[in-house]
Amino acid sequence: MEKVDVVVYGKSTPPPQFLSSLEDNADFINSIIVSENSPAKSVLEELEVPVKTVSGESKNCAAEKNKLIKQADTEYVLLLHTDFSLDEDLVEELLEELEETQADIVYPNLVIKSGNEEKVVNYPDLFNNELTVLHGLAVEDCLPESALLFKKSLLESLGQFDESYDEFDFYEYVYRNVKQLKMKLASVSYAVYEPSSNFIDTSYRSYALRNVVLKNYNWEKDIFPFLSWDKSPKIAMATALTIVGNRLSAYYDYFNASEFYRRALMEFHNQETLRQLIKAYVDMGLFDEAEKLISKSQGMEDKEVEKFQFFTEKIKSLVDELEKAVEQGKVVEIVAALQEVTTFYSGAPIHNILGVIKWLEDKKEEAFRFFYKAVTMNPINEDYLYNLSEAAKLLKKEEEVLGLINRIVGHLKERR
Description:
Elements: E1 4-9, H1 17-24, E2 29-35, H2 41-44, E3 51-54, H3 61-69, E4 76-81, E5 84-86, H4 90-101, E6 105-114, E7 117-121, H5 132-135, E8 148-151, H6 154-157, H7 169-177, E9 183-193, H8 203-216, H9 219-223, H10 233-250, H11 254-267, H12 271-284, H13 287-293, H14 302-327, H15 331-341, H16 348-360, H17 364-377, H18 382-395, H19 398-409, H20 411-415
Parallel strand pairs: 1-2, 1-4, 2-3, 6-9
Antiparallel strand pairs: 4-8, 5-9, 6-7, 6-8
Helix pairs in contact: 7-8, 10-11, 11-12, 12-13, 14-15, 14-16, 15-16, 16-17, 17-18
């Protein structure tokens, strides 16, 4: 059986079992390739397997992978982020599936560890059914981003990982090339994922969906073949647009989600899409816009109008009170109130308020992340943008913020 080169990437310090998991799979590893400045380098030097270090700084995760894969001697490489570790027989099983199917990518199921909690993720087998990754609009639900076998020659035939997607680069690669890829699940052994950070920049996911999937694939045949396009084209389009809006909302991109909801309502006015649009406005903190839609003239029944008005007005009132308390510096009172408020509402205004609190507590990095999330949810609010930009200047993260803005609203410039 062939051996593989392991490409180790990522900026985090590896978990304790990282080294032992590689030792357990050493019989099937040709060499390990790692950046010279990687936190994993010193750990890997303890292995008996040859370790090849590559010099030079990389712009981000995608650039690092592109550089390291080029140094591989084997046709298949095991992509391994420093947050991942392997079951004892995982590499062998991946190679067995590879030899049997000649797939381009072979991936395992996953165990996600967070503290004392474990979550098992069993992925679908995509072999000969690869377009499944388009149907749910969530490629990350279909296969892991790491601990998988990847054919080196794909970088020559289908292009490299796109550096503009940073750590979402692998998933963007799958989206972009799904019609040319054969992907196979190795279902017995597992990889273990222990996230070093609980922050996920979902703007990359939204951007890949809008910029790659929706632009490059046929909606009727590739993305939404399960809708009745021939019998009810307007209803099918409204349904498709609403599904897209729901997925973008799941990524906290309410700005673009609201656009898809509005387009859906223009195709076919329906109460489900209307409710989702109202919710998106509320989560953005656009309470006045939401209230304009809560009306019997929109086809809503009296009880539903009353319910939505009560909920929206209650949240608006609470946000106003919290923002006034912030201006008065009542940090202790705000923290206590937020514990209750966040049980039923955690929209952009709440994240902005949390950012201000962390800023006042001199926790600048945490403040930046809350401001970042607020702008992800609502990139047109001047206060949120100001707070984020000021935090970015202090922390020297202006490029990170410019990237976020470009991913969320950059397409608006193209329309002008």
